[in-house]
Design a protein that fits this description.
The protein is built from 6 helices and 8 strands; from the N terminus they run αβαβαβαβαββαββ. By secondary structure, the chain is an alpha/beta fold. It folds into 2 domains: 1-129, Alpha-Beta Barrel (TIM Barrel); 132-192, no CATH class. It has a 4-stranded parallel beta sheet, with no helix packed on it. A two-stranded antiparallel sheet has the order 5-6. Strands 7-8 form a two-stranded antiparallel ribbon. Helix 2 (43-53) runs parallel beside helix 3. The longest helix is centred in the first third of the chain and has 12 residues, at 17-28. It is globular and about 50 Å long. This is Mandelate racemase/muconate lactonizing enzyme C-terminal domain-containing protein. InterPro entries: DgoD-like, Enolase-like_C_sf, Enolase_C-like, Mandelate_racemase_C.
Amino acid sequence: MNATEDIGWLDDAAVLDATVERLKIVKGLGLNAGLDFHGRLHRPMAKQLAKALEPYRPLFIEEPILVEHPEALKQLAAQTSIPIALGERLYHRWDAKPFFEAGLIDILQPDIAHAGGISETKRLANMAETYDMSLGMHYNTEAGDRDLNTYLKDQSVFAINGGHVAAPTGPGLGIEVDEEMIRKISAETQPWQPKEFFGPDGSIREW
């Protein structure tokens, strides 16, 4: 789940309380969760949030700090027991290699739809971009009424059974894309613009 919206470089620690409370609620329901920081927090706040989350043992924290700052990520990795995940901003295996060599991450998450994927999955990335599988989903829509199944002819492919999804057995990716639905939604959808976060003083924050 998302960790936070935009936060100042050095903000009031109380802005992190809601994130911790949400994780407590999820754990109280008997569920596990990973938290995606989206690289929105700078080191001073990322350190505080990771520390505050530790007692509730999330599965992982994703992009606690942007990959452009491996030195800050190294410091954070030495300070937290929570597994660290990242990868959607890395384009190939040689981008990921230094993070493995330095022991900075525990989970690699290449994003074949957004970042282009590591070289071995580039063909899948091209296919995902061709079908625009994130069209109108997640933060790409205001309505929030679409998900992965919206674009599938057979939605049972991703049916959850016992907390897991079975590996697809069909040809190729194991799915059949509803191209007619994609064309319909494409015609109705305005171009998506990434969020821009600005602090009260006009300063630019990571999105």
